[in-house]
Amino acid sequence: MSKLIDIQNGFQGYLLTGEIADILPAIVEDDLPKEKRLNIYFDAYRLRLLDITQQDYSKTLILLGEEQFEHAFLSYLKAYPSTHFSARYFGQYFSQFLKDCAPYSEYPIFSEMADFEWALMSTLDAADAPLITQAELNNLPEEAWSTLKLSFHPSVILKHYQWDTPFLWKSIENNEAQRNPNLLEEAQHWFIWRKGLRSLYHSITPAQALLFNSMHQGLCFHECLEKLNDIMEETEIPAFAISNLQFWIHSEMVSEVIVQ
């Protein structure tokens, strides 16, 4: 092994899998045996990724406990080895791993908490975009409303959780007395987004989720109102829709109003 690229690939393979055969010939041996020298990097790589994952999922860490979290991390590293040059994205599948793999899958709150924590972080990474003001909405001509469409800020995420996950997250964040998670009778919908430099979250009703999803999918305002007919009284729909539009704009969730 002499080419730099071969050495780099061999070293990367060793860090990811522990397979030593391809890199061992390139290691110079002195007072410290080759295997021990390599093992320093092998352990350091895992410890660094473990530290990053613990920071990214600090509340999930508390739910699992340090020992179980470390076991989960090592299994996750095997199932989802890092493929990105930035360690920021290493943990992006951790929630899915906890959902799919026993024994963690037996406790859905682990996966939900990890999903919520990743969503909060993702809002901070989302691209910047213009924001629509209430004044701009007010200045729209009346005839524009039926075909109006919205483009939402890139940070806006809609989630639904079967457990009281955001409330439990807040409880842990505030160092409140430890409690058990609560299973909800029906899944709760949540907005998660960035306002300024802060990640925010807000619970919404099924009707609000339907309106958002309809507009997010590119339906015009009139089509969105028609979808609400199945779950709301027709006379309540216009005021309901306008109220939600105002909330979205006030909360800095709308980037563009499209008038056709």
TrEMBL record:
Q: What is this protein called?
A: DNA-binding domain-containing protein
Q: Which UniProt keywords apply?
A: DNA-binding
Q: Name one GO molecular function term.
A: DNA binding
Pfam families, sorted: DUF2063 (PF09836)
Q: Which residues form a coiled coil?
A: none
Putative DNA-binding domain residues are 7-98
